[in-house]
Amino acid sequence: MAKENTTVYIILGLLNHEDLSGYDIKKRADYMIASFWEIGYGQIYPTLAKLEQEGLVTKRVSEESKGPERNLYSITEAGRGELTRWLKVPEQKEYTKYEILLKLFFGSLVPVEESAKRIDAFKTRHTENLKMIEMFKGNLQRVMGEDQDHLFFYITVLFGERIYNAYLEWADEALKLLQETQDEGQEPS
Amino acid sequence: MAKENTTVYIILGLLNHEDLSGYDIKKRADYMIASFWEIGYGQIYPTLAKLEQEGLVTKRVSEESKGPERNLYSITEAGRGELTRWLKVPEQKEYTKYEILLKLFFGSLVPVEESAKRIDAFKTRHTENLKMIEMFKGNLQRVMGEDQDHLFFYITVLFGERIYNAYLEWADEALKLLQETQDEGQEPS
DNA sequence: GTTAGCATGTAAGGAGTTACATGATTTC
DNA sequence: GAAATCATGTAACTCCTTACATGCTAAC
Which of A33, A65, A88 is the last residue of a domain? Predict the structure, then answer.
C-alpha cells in the first residue's frame, strides 16, 4: 500500500458524480466508503488543494446565501481522464490490520477470560455493523428495481455483509474453543 | 490506528517465546502473523534498537561460528511487563483498506468486463490463501492433541479460514450479479 | 562462477492520524 | 443561552514502505 495516493481517487470518484465541498466529500465517504476505506479531513483538504493545482478539479465559492461559506469542487476532463486511468490499473492487494488477532495470538500471557471478553466486545461491535449493512441492503434493493445505477454500491454492501457475518461466526467458534479449554482445566466439584 | 507502535508488541510477543534475531523475527512474523498484520525490515531493525535503548530487550552477538554474524535479542522483565500491560488494554478497531472495493464502487466508468476480471483475480489470489490456511489448520490440529499450547495460533487460523471463505463466496455472488446485468443489456439474437 | 539465501542496517518520502484553531449558523 | 452542526484549514507527528548498501555463505 503506497505510491498512488488513494485519497485522490476517492475524491475524483465522488466528484465525478456531483459537485461537492470538502465537507460533503467527508460525509459521502463516511456513509458509503468508510467500511472499506476511511479518510479524514486532514487528507481531504490538502488533497483538494493539490488536485486544483494540478488542474484535475476546479474550485468555486458556493452562491448559497445562508450558512457558512462553502468551496464547491468540480472534476475537470483531465480529472476524469486520470480517474479512468486509475480504474483500469490492477489494484494492490488489500491491507488489513487486526489488533485483536495480535492480542489473541499472544494471549497465553493473560487469563483466558481476558481473551473471551475481547472477543465478546468484537462481537457486539460487529453485530451493530451487520445491522446497519442489512438496512443499507434493504434500501438499495428497493431502489434498484427502478434503475441499476446502484449496482456497484450494492456489490460493496454485499461484501460488508459477508465479512461481518464471517466475523460473528468466527467469534462464536473462538469463544466455544476458549470455553472448552477452561472446562478441561477445572475438575468437576 | 496510531499512537501505540504495534511493531513493538509483535517483537516483544515473539521474543517472549524465544530469543531471536531481526531476521528471525521477520520470518516468524511472515509465517504466523502476516495474514493479519504485516511488518517489514524497515520497521523491525529500528524498533529493536529503540527497544534495546529502553531496556525492554537485550542484545548479544550469537556465538555460532558458521554463517554471517547474528544479533540475538532477548526480552527483559521490563519488556515482559510492557507486553502484559498492552495485552490488558482493549484493542483499537480493526483497520482495513480494500482498493478492489473502491475500484468496483466507481466501476460504472469502465466496461463491466473490467470489473469482472478484477473479481476473478481476487478469487484466484484468495483461493491460494485459503489452501494455505487449510494446510496450517490440518497441521495444527495434529499437534494440538499433544498440548494445547497452539490454541491461540489455531484461533487466528480459524479467523483466516472464515475471512477467505467469505471473500470467495462474495466474489461468486458479485460475478453473478455482473453477469445478469450484462445479459439484460443485450437482446437475444 | 553465479544465484539464492542469510543477515543487518539507513535514508527518503509518502500516507495517515490527531490535535489545534477559528467562526458562523441552526436547533433546542 | 448552550449545544450541535456546518465548514475550512494547518501543524506535528507517527507509521510504514521502498530503495539502497553491504557482505558472507551455501548450493547448483
Answer: A88
Query: Which CATH number characterizes residue A57's domain?
Result: 1.10.10.10
Decide if A1 is inside a domain: no
Cell 478469487 locates to B123
> Which nt is closest to the CA of A67, judged by C1'?
C25
Q: What is the pLDDT of residues A52-99, one digit of tens each?
A: 999 999 999 987 766 668 999 999 999 999 999 999 999 988 999 999
B1 CB and strand C closer than 7 A: yes
Separation between Cα atoms, residue B21 and residue B14, nearest integer Å: 11
The nearest CA of chain B is from the CA of A33 a distance in Å of 8
- B18 inside domain: yes
> pLDDT tens digits for B44-60?
999 999 999 999 999 99
Strands (E), chain B: 57-61, 71-75, 95-97
Give CA separation, A159 vs A87, B172, B181, in Å.
19, 11, 18
Which contacts of A20-28 are long-range, i.e. CB under 8 A and separated by 24 or more positions?
A: A20/A72, A20/A73, A21/A62, A21/A70, A21/A71, A21/A72, A21/A73, A22/A48, A22/A71, A22/A73, A23/A70, A25/A73
Residues A54 and A105 occupy one common structural domain = no
Contact A158 B165 (CB under 8 A): no
Rounded CA–C1' distance between B106 and D9, in angstroms = 28
Cα distance between residue B160 and residue B138, in whole Å: 14
Distance CA A68, CA A24 (A): 13
Joined together, the cell numbers standing for residue B82 give 510492557
pTM for the full predicted model: 0.93
**3-class DSSP state of B59:** strand
Q: Taking Cα atoms as reference points, which of B75, B112, B59 lies closest to residue A109?
A: B75
